[in-house]
Amino acid sequence: MRRARKFLTIVIFAILTTVHLQAKEAGVTPKAILETLQTFYTKFKGGDELIKKSEGYLVFPQIIKAGLIVGGEYGEGALVIKGSIKNYYRIYSTSIGIQAGAQKRSLLVLFFTKEALNKFINREEWKVGVDGGIAVMNWSQGTDLSSVDIRKDTIAIPFSNVGVMANISLEGTVFQKIK
User: Fold this and answer.
1) What confidence tens digit (pLDDT) does each residue in 31-72 have?
2) pLDDT tens sequence across 115-136
3) Which residues are CB-contacts of 144 (< 8 A; sequence separation ≥ 6)?
């Protein structure tokens, strides 16, 4: 039993270290933000129209998530308002439970009201489920977003998933300004 616990601890540490190091090496650049938006537009018809309806949006080119009972995710992105990058953010979370796997994905978070955007901007750290809610939209590639009726203040759209990880919840996820 002790050996199994020790082995599990080493595996979890290795996974979380790998997640952190890969994300840290990737960083985020304006070019990566633009390329991620272009990928979004090619995957979702009307994606540009949906973004125009928002007051501002977060773009995370690469979020890496891994876990084996204990898991974590990390990525860096930017807040864009009226076509300009206003600030850079990191996204991170930890989880414990029945899980195994690794995944890399991109994420777009859109704020549709000034109130929701201002609540987000005015905090150094913003925790999903505590400071505000985000509706996760799991649309399949090719979905026409120009006719989608959004009735939420804030939505998240994960896309470009690579790998296998069962959980797509953002509950407990933290967005933190990078200074």
Assistant:
1) 999 999 999 999 999 999 999 999 999 999 999 998 888 889
2) 999 999 999 888 887 777 888 8
3) 44, 45, 46
- Which residue's structure tokens are 């690579």? 162
Q: Which helix (H) or strand (E) holds 11?
A: helix 2-26
- Measure Cα distances from 75 to 46, 82, 100, 135, 166 in Å: 26, 23, 19, 19, 18
Q: Which two tokens stand for residue 100?
A: 């195994």
State the pTM of this model. Answer: 0.81
H or E segment at 80? strand 56-81
Q: 154-164 and 135-136: which strand pairing?
A: parallel
Domain extents in the chain: 2-177
Cα of 40 vs its chain's centroid, Å: 14
Query: Distance (Å, rounded) from C-alpha 174 to C-alpha 104?
Result: 17
3-state helix, strand, coil in the chain (%, to 5): 30, 40, 25
